[in-house]
Amino acid sequence: MTGALARLRGLALILPGAGWLALFFLVPLAIIFVVSLGDRGALDRIDLSSPSFDNYARAFDPVFLATFLNSVRFAAVTTILCLLIGYPIAYWISRYGGRRKVLLLILVMLPFWTSYLIRTYSWMIVLRDNGVVNSLLQALGLTSQPIILMNTELSVILGMTYGFLPFAILPLFVSIDRLDPSLVAAARDLYATGRSAFVNVTLPLTMPGIVAAGLLTFIPAIGDFVTPDLLGGPETTTIAKNIQVLFLANRDWPYGAALGFVLMVVTLAGTLVAIRTLRREVVGS
Amino acid sequence: MQTRNRWLTGFAVAVYAFLFAPIAVLILFSFNSARRGVAFQDFTLDWYPRLFQNEELIDALFVTLRIAVVAVIVSTLLGALLGLGLARLRFRGQGVTETLLLLPMVTPEIVMGLSLLLFFLQLFGAHGSFVQLSIAHVTFCISFVAVTVRARAASMNPQLEEAARDLGASATGAFVHVTLPLIAPAVFAGAMLSFALSFDDYVVTTFNAGVGNSTLPLYIYGRLKFGVTPEINAISTIIVAVTATIILVAWRVGAFRGEARSSPA
Amino acid sequence: MTDRHAHDGSSIDLEKALVRYMVERRISRRQLLETIARVGPAAALAPVIAACTASPPASASASPSATPGASAGSPSASAEPTPLPSPESELFIYNWTDYLADEVIASFESSYGVKVTQSFFSTTDEMYTNLGTDGGGYDLSFPISVDIPGLIEKGTIIELDPAFLTNIGNLGAEWANPGYDPGNAHSVPYMWWTTGVGYDTARITDELTSSNALWDARWANHISMLDDWQEVFGLTLIQLGYSANTENTSELDEALARLQEQKPLVRTYSTDTIGTMTSGDIWIGHIWGADRYAIQEVNENVVYYIPEEGGVKGSDALAVMSGAPHPIAAQLFINHVLDAKNSAANTNLIYYMGPNAAAKEFILPEILDDPTINPDQEIVDKLEELLSLSQDVRDEYLSRWQQLRG
What we know:
By secondary structure, chain A is mainly α. Chain A contains 13 helices and 2 strands, in the order αββαααααααααααα.
């Protein structure tokens, strides 16, 4: 098989999906980019008579910095927690799941085939001052007054970790399950301890899965505003909420679009740098 | 090995408990006679018959399911091919394609939702059709499938398919018999993520749904103004119960065994 | 278009009685006409019915099947052969979930032969975005009254044909000529509400009357404000003695400073007051008056008051979109909602007072007698309506809101 032919076949695999994204994602995105260069005109119309990057200058308003840092912090903590919880679970399903593997995997997803809002409401029932946790603590005599759990950073992180956990578990499973058990066995012969075999063989070999899981968690998490909105308090506003307000309350689409693009570029750049670094490390080891 | 297994199993049970804790609360409160609140009043079955009289809720459920099915099929197909192609190919535009893959994920939902709304308004002068809503859902699902499949395919030995070809398999034969079974678990995982994403999407849907296309999330969020009642818990309970039954029956019948066997390489 | 029969008292009353009868019996006019044709004695009614059916815009109850039914069933139908619009076969409503009683929709469907399809939004911002400049394919929606002038200017909504609105007289006198839409030319008021303060008497034993209570450090971490910039600034501005719709930026700065003072005490900015005030989280909250009923269902210790400094009121309206595919059905539906019993059915579902004076006799006494849902005129006079602000003024509010929330 010649290289040229392989390349042709590879392109044929990529073409339909890339074409779809180009048409239904890039073209609409280009339209909204044009919008971001305009001004909000009368009657909420978009005025494109004097295009400029003014909206981008406004997007760097320091008022957005605090909410951007909130978004990054929540997303980072959520991603780390999802990986720390997700990896052992994915490993367990893959190694000890046996014939039940697929079943166990579907069970991870099952809670997410209900409604987001209702799941979040259920967490509220658990976390509120008269909720399940506080009632239990008081019944056991551990506390006399309710501990404030709702509307804190803790409840936001909990809600987000819950919401994004399957997005970490699935790609981790897929990657760990690829691993040839005989490789690990061989490594154990070489390294003697289970821990160093894990660190030197299993972990590097499953790095593509860790990267994918990290991406599928961090990226949507940084754009999340519903969870911080519903479970958070006065100090948990995120940048995506600011964008929402600019679009819908201010009805200033150009400004909202500009802030959206700034967030996208920053997230994308950070993500690409992270991927490159991780890949180089994998190749290096 | 045995002790580690027990430790891990204990951890796994705890995580499954965490995942299902809100579902247990959700199911419990579908039998709550009180319309609202965190306290369980009396046991009642009233919400279930009420649910079936609620034509709009049932309609919304079926719209949601129809869109999710389309979104899962199309996005899994396109996303899996894309992920596979990207994992295999070393070409000059790869960085660009990879960025393209991540872009839909880094795009704030409201930007994506409104950009599609503008796109359809500009191009077709109309918006809100079933086709438009399906296209929107496929668009935000593709990347999730592609990233998952790519991770699996990246750790796959590219020489396997070549070896099969050397042994006389046709290109299609090598793909169907070697590559496909290897990436199948990732494709399956991607399909499940797509279903969950589509089934629960609110922001993109709200700007791309039109007459007759109100999905379950739109129905439920629309109720926020007056407080959500246990009817919503009841319908969620039914969805979980029906899905769980189908899964268990399928498992008993052995539907997943082929895949389970093929997964360890 | 207008028909004298529509303004003829006797035929209207008779017609109303008939419509009510049909609604209650869930039969269409065609069925009724056929029954009448079959059962001889009722033939005396035929001329009236024929006159009504022959002029659908004037008689709200005309159904599409009525005209053929009338000509087949009663010979006097030929008296007025004017071709008149009959409702289309469908109606697309864009609405909050559960904002219209099921029976009101069902009776409209059965008496007019129209299939109603509802779609749902969860914030007014979403509604306006999707309605765009022509209604986005919907026939009918529920904008906030103060936004009506803007929607007229944008060309989103149409002028209503008074011929369809035979029940408009049911509106209370104070709603006949609202400032946002003189003469109800483009919209018909649907429901109205007040915004004030709710508190849990089991936690707070003081008798509260002022909005300053929301700034009381004794209740730190158990205070909530609505996640709604205009409501939050409205309450604070009124408390400071200014207009809830001020355009004076130094007054806005003062309000922002006051709100920043409050922020460390606030547990959450949320519109889910039903959830927060029934769970022990919130002892005192800035709430929409009507929500108090839902809260009391679970926590009967919660009471509601309109601050002595003054409160905020608002209302929703029904309006027909300029691009409506079914404008006749939409206007007939508005008239259907204006019917006293139908209006009462909606109030009894959601516990918001409607502007319908004739509906009062059908409203549940518990709602009617509740001074917080149905306050005395003296209290109503102290209320200020939140206005639709110009873009620049809006930006002044919102930039401060982002500073507070960010």
